[in-house]
Please model this.
Amino acid sequence: MYTLYGMSDSGNCYKPQLALEQLGIAYRWVEVRDTRTPEFLAKNANGKVPLLELEDGSFLAESNAILWYLAEDTELAPAGRLGRACALQWMFFEQYSHEPYVAVARSIVRHTPVGSPRRAELPRLRERGHQALGVMEGHLAREPYFVGGAYSIADIALFAYTHCAEDGGIELAPYPAIRAWLRRVHAQPGFVPMR
Amino acid sequence: MYTLYGMSDSGNCYKPQLALEQLGIAYRWVEVRDTRTPEFLAKNANGKVPLLELEDGSFLAESNAILWYLAEDTELAPAGRLGRACALQWMFFEQYSHEPYVAVARSIVRHTPVGSPRRAELPRLRERGHQALGVMEGHLAREPYFVGGAYSIADIALFAYTHCAEDGGIELAPYPAIRAWLRRVHAQPGFVPMR
Model:
């Protein structure tokens, strides 16, 4: 059985959890409080969750790489050579142009006190978050999902922090196509909400 | 024939260029000066290079997604389900934990004047860059390449900005395993240096 090391509050950790649930794969969840302990760094030298432990004891890190591993040859995998590359295009977009703004704004709002100097970063994070949402809105105004007209791991990757963007003060009201897509994801078989 | 839109000075643009050269695939290079023009945004709404135009006129963005597309079913693709996921693990590591520090430090040093306020970011960027290099060093002390003992697109992704990390003031002297790996990459058939 797989073991998934994660933090319940993390959208990155929610991604593989949602895929495992939707694929009906049994797994054990281990809540991690500190990723910089010697014990955890021996599992993932980069000191991050989520981390998937396979049955043979090997480890796989990076939320979107775990999604790829879990989805291969399932209905959550994008089809075709260009479809696979397009899914990765959106998943790299998520990690480079979306998560560092949308997730970090949420983390600062939820985990720093009102007077924290980190809150000075919020206007820039929100501006860049809106840029990412604008790119998504343009795509979703034409297409129901991110790749090939079907729900896939690219949608899971982008759903994880988009659905809770308002936690970080990034309003979704200006994005009707994104809001309709969030509803379509919610309606997928096996959907579970973030813990 | 493929068209690759890029900026010669960019490690992200060097990645697909190196893969195309090593795979012996003909392509046309188009130097891009401004990625925020209406003309370019019509090609890539996220306004970034590299961007690959396929023969059918469709576009693929994100350097590591382009690498994946080009390498599929070639000797540059990692083998096996876990090998593919491990390659993606390192490629997401590159975009999230390496490039935002190593590449950005280099960009600030090369493209901002000595008194620029952006230079205040350099100590933190270099510290985080060294963290990423430390993770790579630990792996390369045990393995010749990033995945499965063979040169692959995971190596190309990490070579792009590691080989020029010193441009940003991130010294490679403390990393003998990385320096040996850089020499192994240089010795690969079809290797071309960054422009």
